[in-house]
Amino acid sequence: MSERQNGLPEDQIWPEPDLLYSDTVRELHAVIESDWDSLRQSACQTAAGRALWKHVVHDPLAGLLAGETYLKSFYEKIKKDRLNNAREVSGVILAVRTLWFDTKLEAAISSFGGAAQVVLLGAGMDARAYRLCCLKDSDVYEVDFCDVLQMKNSILRAAMESTSERQQLMVTAKSLNTVAADIRDNDWLKKLQIAGFVPEKSTVWILEGILYYLSHSQAMEVLKTIAHSCTLARTVLLADFMNKQSTTLSSSVFHFYSDWPDHLLPSLGFSDVKLSQIGDPDAEYGLLHDPLNLFNKLRSLPRSLQTHPDDGKPCCRLYLVQASGSPNQTIS
């Protein structure tokens, strides 16, 4: 069987999303669509991408947390890409990013002996605490706006009452703790500690799809706070960074960037930093092997280039970064 550029069999039909929601769940999602700003709504868009790439991303709750509108919109983009034989199908970056975070999280927890604190900053509609078995001995903390956490809980409770598939709605982590806080404020760490977080315990910090929504000063404060934890306990940071050109994709939404996060993070206190680009061997997962897709074309160019020499278009890059440190390590 031949393979398309996106790593899927040519004869595979992308299934339409499952839209079997209860009236209560539909009403809750209607509130999201009418009342939430674009930053909060991005959580549902991310969930929609995971739901529609379910052939590679295992997230049974993604469709429920995404909602009908975002699922339909994402599905139409994918259908259009397939009809046009696009080299990059909508959502492939999101699928790769999710798989990268899942893989690195599992490896980090394993390196800690199978248990750790896991903190998701800007958790949104993330469902890792419900779907990853590697968290069975770990305490998970989800930090986000109060209304986001309340809505997520309301959707899950409503689904629990209306479905027989209750097993997938059960938390797989040792514990799940929600922390209502805005990481743009200075009190989020204090609120995290009040919820039970212990700074002296080994911790994995997940910042997925969140840093570039912050201002430069806000993002730096968050990164400095996490870097300081390296002086207290074994610490792993998993985060994605946009380069400067990527912020031009939506100048009204994206703000913070770093062209060289592998230089930035050691300067803050991390002793070991590994950077990957979409399409690298550890950030490809069989989905991006076409040498002519956008991501592989960018990877072949020096990271210092701001525009592509072939067409003059901005070199928009997304970096996947793992940084770590501990009290007994020094920066090399």
Automatic annotation (TrEMBL):
SUPFAM superfamilies: S-adenosyl-L-methionine-dependent methyltransferases (SSF53335). Gene3D superfamilies: Vaccinia Virus protein VP39. Keywords: Methyltransferase, Transferase. One of its GO terms (biological process) is methylation. One of its GO terms (molecular function) is methyltransferase activity. NCBIfam families: mthyl_TIGR00027. PANTHER family: LEUCINE CARBOXYL METHYLTRANSFERASE, S-ADENOSYL-L-METHIONINE-DEPENDENT METHYLTRANSFERASE YKTD-RELATED. Belongs to the UPF0677 family. This is S-adenosyl-L-methionine-dependent methyltransferase. It comes from Escallonia rubra.
